[in-house]
Write a structure and sequence with these properties.
Layout: H1 2-5, H2 10-13, H3 22-25, H4 37-44, H5 52-94, H6 103-109, H7 121-142, E1 154-155, E2 172-173, H8 177-185, H9 188-211, H10 222-240, H11 242-250, H12 266-287, H13 291-315, H14 330-338, H15 345-354, H16 365-378, H17 386-412, H18 419-431, H19 438-460, H20 468-473, H21 479-499, H22 501-533
Helix pairs in contact: 5-12, 5-13, 5-16, 5-17, 7-22, 8-21, 8-22, 9-21, 10-13, 10-19, 12-13, 13-16, 15-18, 21-22
Length: about 550
Amino acid sequence: MQVLASHLGQAFWFATPENEWKVFQGYLPTWLTAHEKIALAGLYEDKTGFNLSEYIGYIKSWSPIILAWSGFLTVLVFVMFCLNVIIRKQWMDNEKLTYPVVRLPLELVGDAGSLSFLRNRMVIIGFAITAFINLLNGFAFIYPSIPSIPIKARDVSYLFASSSWSAVGWQPISFYPFAIGLGFLIPLDLSFSCWFFYIFYKILLVIGKVTGLATGVASFHPNEQMLGAYLAVLGVALWRCRRYLLSVFLSLFRSTQEDKDEPMRYRSAILGVIVGFSLLVAFSVKAGMSLWVALIFFALYFAISLSVTRLRAELGAPVHDLWSVGSTGPDTFITTVFGTRRFNPTTLSVLTLYYGFNRDYRGHAMPHQLESFKIAENLNLSMKRFVYATIIAAFFGSVSSLWAFLHSYYKTGFGGGFGWEGFSRLQRWFFYPSSPDYSSLGFLSFGAVFTIIMMIVRFRFIWFPFHPLGYALAPSWSMNLIWMPLFISWLIKLFALRYGGLKVLRRLNFLFLGLILGELIIGGFWTLIGIFLGIPTYAFWI
């Protein structure tokens, strides 16, 4: 929502003779963007407040835009919900995926209010460790004379100053306790593969520079390989449950009792996907996007959404940002593969607006929905009302968050934020049209094939130490920040299993759950202090 809000008025306020943004202003749909000078002046100029009449004027200008986007996002989230209903039973009951991310909330609420989890000695120890670190660092942030414990990411690329090793680039080292705790909950082979492939990827950069085969990160097309790996993981998962999916599809034509306990009937879920997908495509065509582009865009978007959901359900993947600096988002991937020459100006303009929910997938809604199904199942809760809760939350969440961002921007002035990224890219698309990039498509195919090969090897040889998701996650931007915590948690878990067995491992699980809980609670405490006192405070992440 923060990225989307920054795009709604950017092209009309920051257009100058130098950047020539006025060229594509006429291609942006007026019902989805703010173009009135009065509203934009209040948004981007530095000021301390505004009176009631101005506020009413802003409401009139922004209400149709906010309602249009909120309706669009509600349908988007509803389609995700319907897809989750379709695959829930297969991934939850038939394959019995582990859902590591829901472990902590289940421990907190799954003991019928007895608080046995919070009284666990190992939980208390873990909580105390991170509470102390975050309290000390919080006070050190406010009072610099107090010493702090350095756990946040610090760049050590200066250690690789030679010409060859400089190819490593940005190289942070961190010790985030919550990331260490999360890494301990995921399977051992995944945590190993994450940090191994990350280091291997860095070594490849050095080898490429030394041999002259690669001039930098872009030469390896890591984002394209990552997207190919994601899609391959999804493809294999769907192929393995093809009989189940066929039976779900046949429920369109026959009555069945297999879905009586689902959040909604399979027939309704399938029709929901079809109707919702059609509405999203119609919305895009109305905004100016070509029909064939809209069909490919949303097909790829929901494929990525399902991939991220599978990663979280099966392995509790620690990161899945898929930051679209390369070609990982549907918008950038389509223009890379087909070339911008193939698209009309309005299509490129709408793709730029869609950058608002495709810049990355760190906070994707779809995995959270499926994890809520898992929590409900474990607690024997009815899921029948989830569909109403999802629709209501999606709509009012979209309206309130967009309004909250705009309100703060009007109060303090706004410099454009992420809007610069989207419209600078659109500027390149307009003035430097490109042809299809077959090398990107080749690396995407390589990533998919390599992932499938690794998955086949894992199916045949149980001792195979490499998990294909480690390869998929290695180039991720966020992996730079947590590779060291994952290495630490992997090392501890390896020794615990080898020398202590399952009994020790189960006890340590509570210690690391305490690490996560302590950091989140004390980190939230500092955030609330900053809100109520109106001062900057310590943030435990980044």
